[in-house]
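Incident log, support desk, overnight shift.

02:14 A customer reports that sequence design results differ from what the structure should imply. Their input is reproduced verbatim below. On-call engineer (initials T.W.) acknowledged and began investigating.
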């Protein structure tokens, strides 16, 4: 019986980690505080020297975005804003991909909206020296993506820490005039959407393991 359970664990592990161990695509869904979206991001090896170990570069994004407060419903996600790393990178733990978009930041007057376009299948590390949050699919600066109506959205993770609040995500919605029309610091959840192929592999693997167990019991 222990051998059967071990085999099941191996099958589940292979399916769960296979897509995260290489470049590819990741299906997602996020929602909270009247903001929602779903789609697929494309990621590849992160070639920026000075970025955290385990990070992948987000190279594309498609899907739909809604914000009930702003009256946006199922607006197409068309891509990501290219990163523009600083000429002189900030010291660690800031990722070298740290970039800023020139829209006034409501929480940091005089600064833009920061982003890195990094994806962390295994959870982000601490990326800001004065903030302990870590562990999300994105870091505390997040991914900045474009919409078909000219809006831009930054989606980030607030992370969590021992004794801290549960992990949540935030978003800033920038209108075509480069004004931050909505700044939601937390209250969003970002989750992975299992791919149909992965579910089929998992189901097939489990059926195979269970069938093997029945054959072994009959022989015994």
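02:41 Re-run completed on a clean worker. Output:
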């Amino acid at each position: 019986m222990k051998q059967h359970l071990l085999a099941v664990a191996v099958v589940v592990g292979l399916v769960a980690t296979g897509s995260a161990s290489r470049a590819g695509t990741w299906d997602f869904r996020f929602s909270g505080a009247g903001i929602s979206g779903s789609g697929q991001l494309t990621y590849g090896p992160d070639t920026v020297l000075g970025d955290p170990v385990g990070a992948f570069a987000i190279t594309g994004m498609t899907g739909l975005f809604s914000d009930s407060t702003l009256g946006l419903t199922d607006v197409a996600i068309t891509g990501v804003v290219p990163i523009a790393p600083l000429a002189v990178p900030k010291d660690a733990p800031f990722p070298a991909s740290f970039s800023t978009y020139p829209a006034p930041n409501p929480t940091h007057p005089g600064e833009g909206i920061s982003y890195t376009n990094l994806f962390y299948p295994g959870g982000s590390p601490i990326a800001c020296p004065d903030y302990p949050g870590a562990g999300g699919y994105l870091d505390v600066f997040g991914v900045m993506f474009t919409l078909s109506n000219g809006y831009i959205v930054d989606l980030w993770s607030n992370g969590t820490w021992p004794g801290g609040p549960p992990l949540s995500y935030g978003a800033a919605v920038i209108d075509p005039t480069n004004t931050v029309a909505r700044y939601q610091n937390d209250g969003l959840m970002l989750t992975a959407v299992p791919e149909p192929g992965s579910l089929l592999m998992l189901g097939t693997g489990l059926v195979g393991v269970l069938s093997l167990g029945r054959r072994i019991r009959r022989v015994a």
